[in-house]
Each structure stands twice: as structure tokens, then as C-alpha cells.
Amino acid sequence: MDRIARKVSLYADEMLFAFRAPRSIGDKLRLMCSTLAFHYRNWRAAPIDPGPRMRIDLDIEGYGSTITLRPRDGDIAVFHEIFVRRAYDIPSDLLPPSSVRTIVDAGSNIGITSQYLAGRYRNARVFSIEPNPDNFALLQENVTSEPRIVPIQACVTAKPNQAVFITTGGRGSHFQMNSHGDGVCVRGISLNQLCEERGIDHIDLLKVDIEGAEVELFGDGSFLPKVRIIAAEIHGDYDLERFNADLSRWGFRAWVNHNSQEQGLVLAARA
Q: Per-residue confidence at 24, pLDDT binned at 50, 70, 90?
């Protein structure tokens, strides 16, 4: 019963946000109907259709943005994860918005998180890294109106210049990475390499959602002296205990992000 009540509450929050955030009545109705249709299709296990597009103009806490979504793919779920369940809502006392200058969004999907972060941290430049070619094309479209967001097609890896192959299937927001030569070859880039290429000497916020590759990334961790705060989604057997074991070598401590209603999301800062 508690699970059902929680779902009903989350769906109600999604509909309320869909009514409030879009600028026009037409966009409000489109987002509300698309949200309901997404849940219905998900319940019916309907096949994914990445073809249709929906473009909406948003006004979120005084920050305007335009986002193009694939309403019959997984983008609606990601949209509500970021804006309604506030997956990357970081307490201001931990990371004062006015102090943030550099953000790295590793695994930026179609740019929804990057837009959220650009709106919250108005003085920051956001480096948005996404390997999936289909996602990256939509990412580029979504961030054209915000010059502070820099899209980079690459895969964040522990070592520089690794050849990574992307195979997609199902939802466009999901893919698999391999080193066997299957799929599309995408450039691998380490965070140290990114900093060197882009002239970054400090990362105020490192957001990480890289489909399980965080095991190798934080197992190396040589980039961590440059990082202030980490917001990460950890997957599978790489739990909070293992994450903390890797981070502790660099003076960090991680904990569950209680500001967020999304599960599996953690924050980390220097202990």
C-alpha cells in the first residue's frame, strides 16, 4: 500500500509540474498528456518509438529553457527525474550556487540535467559529455540557446583515448559500452584529459551517470584532487560501501542524497 501511495504522489507531482512549468497552455497540455501516455505505455510494455519529438518552452525558477523530448522513449522519465524528483538537488550550504564556476556532466543524455544545472548555477560553465550518437544529436539541439553549456561527444573513461563501442537497443537513454568492436566507436576521454584539453583547473561539481563505468572511473580516481563535490548514480554491485572505499583514499566521504526522491543517487565531499 505504501508503494502505491508513493507512486500516486509522484504521478500527482509530475502532473502539477507539467501544468506549472511550460510557458504556454499548449505546452502544458502536451506535457501532461505525454506524461500520462508514457506511464500507460510503460504499464502496457508498449514498444519504444524514438521517432516522435516534442518541443516545450519552460520557465523554471526564473530560468527559461527549451527542451526537445522523445515522448515515446525514456526522455519523459528522465525529465521528471531531474525536475520533479530533483535527482541532482544539492543543498546550498554544501554547494552555494553563486560559488560554482565549472561543472562536468558525465553521461548527460539529451542535456536535461545540464540545463537544470545551468539554471541553478548561473555563473557556471557546464561541460556535457555524452557518448550515444542519438542522444548526443538531441543534446546539441537542446543546448544551442545556452552558450554556457559545452556539448562533447565522448565516453568518460578511467584512461585517456580508450576506444569505446556503443550498442543501443530499447530506449535511447540506455545503451551498452564494450571494447569488442561491436557497434559505433566513440572516443574515450579521461577526466584528467578533459581538464587538460579544456583548460580546467578545478571542477566544482562532477555529476556522474555512466551506466556502470563508475567502477573503473573511481577505482582510478587520479582526477579527484581537482573535484569539490560529486553527485553520482551508482549501479549494481558498486554500492555505497565500495564507492566510499574508493573515495576515502582521496579524502572524500559519500552519502545518500536525501534531498532527492530518486534512489541510487549519492553525494560526496571532502571529509
A: very high
Buried b / exposed e along 177-211 (16+ C-beta atoms within 10 A)? beeeeebeebebbbbbbbbeeeebeebbbbbbbbb
Give the bridge partners for 216, in sequence order.
none
Determine the Cα–Cα distance for residues 149 and 159; give it in Å rounded to an integer. Answer: 24
The per-residue pLDDT for range 35-76, each reduced to its tens digit, is: 999 999 999 999 988 889 999 999 988 889 999 999 999 899
Please state the pTM of the whole predicted model: 0.92
Asked if 163 and 185 count as a contact pair (C-beta separation under 8 A), the reply is yes
Task: Centre a 10 Å sphere on the Cβ of residue 163 and count the other Cβ atoms it contains.
Answer: 12
Q: Which residue has the cell 558525465?
A: 106
List of domains in the chain:
1-84 (no CATH), 90-271 (3.40.50.150)
> Which residues, at least 6 apart from 17, have a Cβ–Cβ distance to it below 8 Å?
80, 83, 84
